[in-house]
Amino acid sequence: MDALFAPFEAGTTDRPFVIAQLGQSLDGRIATLSGDSKYINGASALDHLHRLRARVDAVVVGVGTVVADDPLLTVRRVGGRNPARVVLDPSGRVPAQARCLRRDGAERIVVCREEAKAPQAPETLRLASDGCFMCPRAIVAALGRRGFRRLLIEGGARTISRFIDAGCVDRLHVLVAPLIFGSGKPALDLKPIGAVSEALRPTAQVHVLPGGDVLFDCDLRRPASEVRNP
Predict the structure, then answer these.
(1) Fold of 13-189+200-213
(2) Distances from the Cα of 59 to the Cαs of 155, 184, 203, in angstroms?
(3) What global pTM score does this model have?
(4) Element (H or E) spanning 67, and its range?
(5) pLDDT tens digits, the chain, 230 residues: what are they?
(6) Annotated domain spans of the chain
């Protein structure tokens, strides 16, 4: 499994390596309609998520994930150091008591719009916006200037979708649990396409984890067609 992390070494401060991960059901759901998502994936999938955190310089989440789940975003299930924790909070609404902002030696940064109210955070990074959202490319570049070479986009679905739509994600790890919800919140919500030929078809390696979860390691920089027709 160590080979999964080898591509991360390509990251530089000028061009950070960006990996996104999501855990979902067989039918592509990350939560029920009520928002319940604990726990879709099993222990081995959670171990993998913590290994990802241990291999990056910063873990990035949207403020919606912080408000809904209040995650720690630390490394606890495996060995390794805690990465910096970055909250994307355009309007400055992150709760001051959010667990991911607790002092534990790791950097804690809230990224907000230039005109947003000052969030209650240890450190604030202000970026230009289009009125609602900040550009994912600008976010990656700004974090690279801070010295971060490897970034994990951990959630939520809208945040991951925006980074994929912007072409910012190098690798996508999808952890699929053997569950069927039948309804609920979708894992991704990308820009609509008109034909199957327009769909993303990344090169993918598949790993079956103990307990039945399946990891899809998707190389978004290398379409599957390049493998079939080198």
Answers:
(1) Dihydrofolate Reductase, subunit A (3.40.430)
(2) 9, 25, 24
(3) 0.94
(4) helix 63-69
(5) 678 999 999 999 999 999 999 999 999 999 999 988 888 999 999 999 999 999 999 999 999 999 999 999 999 999 999 999 999 999 989 998 999 999 999 999 999 999 888 777 889 999 988 767 899 999 999 999 999 999 999 989 999 999 999 999 999 999 999 999 999 999 999 999 999 999 999 999 999 999 999 999 999 998 876 655 55
(6) 13-189+200-213
